[in-house]
Design a protein that fits this description.
- The protein is globular.
- The N and C termini lie far apart (about 45 Å).
- Helix 9 packs across helix 11, helix 12 packs antiparallel against helix 13 and helix 15 runs parallel beside helix 17.
- A hairpin with a 3-residue loop joins strand 8 and strand 9.
- The protein is α+β, with helices and mostly antiparallel strands.
- A six-stranded mixed β-sheet has the order 5-2-6-7-8-9.
- Bound molecules: iron/sulfur cluster.
- Iron/sulfur cluster (SF4) binds next to helix 17.
Amino acid sequence: MPVSVFDLFSIGIGPSSSHTVGPMRAGRAFASRLAGTPVASVAVDLYGSLASTGQGHGTLGAVVAGLMGSDPETVDPDAMGASLAELEDTGRLRLAGGATVPFRLTDIVLHPLTMLPRHPNAMRLRATDASRAVLAEETYYSIGGGFITNDSEGDVAEAAIPVDDAVPFPFSSGAELLAACAANGLPVSGIALANETATRSTEDVRAGLLRIHDVMESCVERSVARSGTLPGGLTVRRRAANWFEQLTADDPEHDPLFAMEWVNLMAMAVNEENATGGRVVTAPTNGAAGIIPAVLYYALTYVPTVTAEHRDDTVLRFLLTAGAVGSIYKERASISGAEVGCQGEVGSAASMAAAGLAEVLGGTPEQVENAAEIAMEHNLGLTCDPIGGLVQIPCIERNAIAANKAINAARMALRGDGVHHVSLDQVVETMRQTGADMSTKYKETAMGGLAVNVPLC
Ligand code: SF4
């Protein structure tokens, strides 16, 4: 069954959907169970990738903010920072249900070398009463893109509104999606829209997607107004503000010759904001959040048929098409860097963006599928090795490179007739298998690659 576009594009905070947004949702879900119970203490254990890169990804603060009741979609990152500072001062944690318990971030126990069987991103939460009797205990898994699941309830992503079983055009593969397009004479976005409107009005879908796009644009606007270095200790300089100033002076009329540089800027601006812990749209993850906004910017700025009057419709078609392709990755492989490496994050986002652009360029469903396939084929094997466990190097530049790759993939597909050798389903399965074979040190543990070859100071 296809995953809703509103699950793949959710509003949250940086720097990581699986390590920040998911843990916050898990903390919040757990705290909601404690309302009305005589809770006297809580314990938090992080396992695998959450433990090994949790410091750099803000996981510890996120899970505690969730326990306080913060929601990734609405939390004010500055207020969250102040609450965490107060927690460290007082050693007292006020849970969402009202009880206050002794707690500091240093009480969180990290188990970086322990991988729980269900998923490498696991956390165990436990609450006890004054006599140390267990009131509630749960193991949550942050499975990528902010989605969470647990041992007792299954999927509990709070922002997730599952697409009803009664969608008119169920699909879980590229082949099924193409068959639905052919049988109904609809583009990929048409199939996706019909499925979304099985559970929401057309107006709600439209308003929801335009809001998602607004948040993407505001993220860029905030980012290009900020200079200095990114948090985390790597002293990585923010570049977007300076590039924005330069490009605005060099290319006031948006000459297509500068298109690649504007696309670079958009992707890097989003990812610098993400690295700061700011508000971003998970698309389909935070580490890869810059690719879809950058390629959508290209579609709105450089595709001649997209006039002001078609702008909103273009946003909808782009995001619906990208969402349809993202749903296939979520269903058949993974969008989690901890599970399949960066190919599942940046690769999936590039594939989704290429599909969205191909449709906006007037591609047939076969050309859209081809664009999605090309973009993933040339991201296969991409490892996740963030320096210092921070979503900064290689992540920020990688989004810019992948956005341009996605544009190239869409343009290559549009030069063909949609007939091609490797299908999207074959490349998705190849990505899944490659991820399964990939050494753990290249799957968001900061134990291999650039993370060990580049000194931290
Ligand atoms: S390397 Fe890729 S998967 Fe890993 S944190 Fe960076 S963007 Fe995410």
